[in-house]
Amino acid sequence: MAVRPIVTYPDPRLRQETVPVLRVTDEIRTLVADLADTMLAEHGAGIAAIQIGAPERIFLIEGAVAGGAIGSPPKVFMNPEILWLSDESDTAEEGCLSFPDIFVQLKRPTRCRVRAMGLDGELFETEGNLLLARAMQHEGDHLNGKLMIDFVGPLKKEMIKRKMKRYAQREAEDS
After folding, report:
1. Is the pLDDT of residue 77 over 90?
2. Residue 92 backbone zone (phi > 0: left; psi -120 to 50: alpha; other: beta)
3. What Cα–Cα distance (Å) separates residue 125 from each residue in 72, 78, 83?
4. Closest Cα partner for 141 from 53, 82, 54, 63?
C-alpha cells in the first residue's frame, strides 16, 4: 500500500472519463488501499480514484465522516449512483485535495442517498446529511469530470486559476 501523488488542477486527467468497476480484484483492493493511505496522509474527508490518476469509478469517504467512530476505516463506494437529493440545501465551505489550500462556498442539497458497490462486491445504499451528503456529492462529481471550480463565478474562477498556477510553480521549484 502506498501514498500516491494527488493530481491537481488544471491536470486534464481530472476531466477524463471514468470506467465502472466490473468486479473486485486484487488490483482494485490495492487501489482502494492506496486511496485510503493517500486520503489519510492528506487529511481529506474523501478522495476519488481519478485524483490519483486512476480512471476507476471509486471514491472513499473518511470513516468518521461516513458515520463511523474516529479512526474507523474509510467507506468505499464503487460505481456510485446518486438516487435522491433533498430539496433543502445549504451553502458551506468546501475544499478539495486537487485544489490545495483553496476553499469555496458551495450550495448543495443537505441530504442525499447513494447506491454503490462495496469492497465486498455487494451493493448497498446509504443516506447521508450535511457533511456526509456534501462529501458524497463532491466525490461523485469527480467521477463525472466536475470540479468545484465549475460551480463558481468568473471572478472566483480566475482567482483559483492564479492560485493554482502559483502552487504549480512552487511545486516545480521544490522538486
Report:
1. yes
2. beta
3. 19, 12, 9
4. 82
Domain that holds residue 18: 12-174
- What would the pLDDT profile of 117-148 be if each residue is shown by its tens digit? 999 999 999 999 999 999 999 999 999 999 99
Mean pLDDT across the stretch 102-114?
Answer: 97
CA dihedral (148, 149, 154, 159) in degrees, to 10, reads 120
Number of other residues whose CB lies within 10 A of the CB of residue 146:
15
Select which of 42, 122, 139, 171 is catalytic: 139
Please tell me the distance from the alpha carbon of residue 21 to that of residue 61, in angstroms, as a whole number: 17
The structural domain count of the chain equals: 1
For residue 3, being part of any structural domain is answered with no
Of 4, 11, 2, the C-alpha closest to 99 is 11
Name the strands in the sheet holding 58-61, side by side, starting at the edge strand that comes first in the sequence.
46-48, 58-61, 75-85, 111-117, 123-129
Is 74 contained in some domain? Answer: yes
List CB contacts of 153: < 8 A, sequence separation 6 or more: none
The predicted model scores a pTM of 0.95
Q: Is residue 6 part of a domain?
A: no
Is 62 annotated as catalytic?
Answer: no
CATH number at residue 44: 3.90.45.10
- 113 domain-assigned: yes
